[in-house]
């Protein structure tokens, strides 16, 4: 697993606020060269510590967004492999380990029921997943 140092943590903090910040701006803020920033980003991405860049949208801007919580049971010692495969799915916006009956909890966001169905089938077809239970989130209260 990649060990974060203070520069990595600062870089990630800046990117959480502005994932589109150019390398030159990141280098200026961090007071390092553009090459250093590029190398750090490459290392964070290649190690899996940084999963990618995304857009955050205000909830009411996407009224048709379908959200769900999926509880996942994993077979034996295959949790690490299952997590790696799940991390590659952009529809799973968050992934949590947990205790109790379920081993993992995934937060799903898609834009159609067809995409939701495909996502469920993809997750359930991953080797090492024994069982899952999914609940659609209807409204926030």
Short synopsis of the structure:
The chain contains five helices and four strands. By secondary structure, the chain is an alpha+beta fold.
Describe the fold and architecture.
The chain is 39% helix and 22% strand. It is an alpha+beta fold and 141 residues long. It has a 4-stranded antiparallel β-sheet with strand order 2-3-1-4, covered by helices on one side. Helix 2 (23-30) packs across helix 3 (34-47). The longest helix has 14 residues, at 34-47. It is globular, with a radius of gyration of 18 Å. It starts with 5 loop residues before the first helix and ends with a strand. The model has no long low-confidence stretch (mean pLDDT 89).
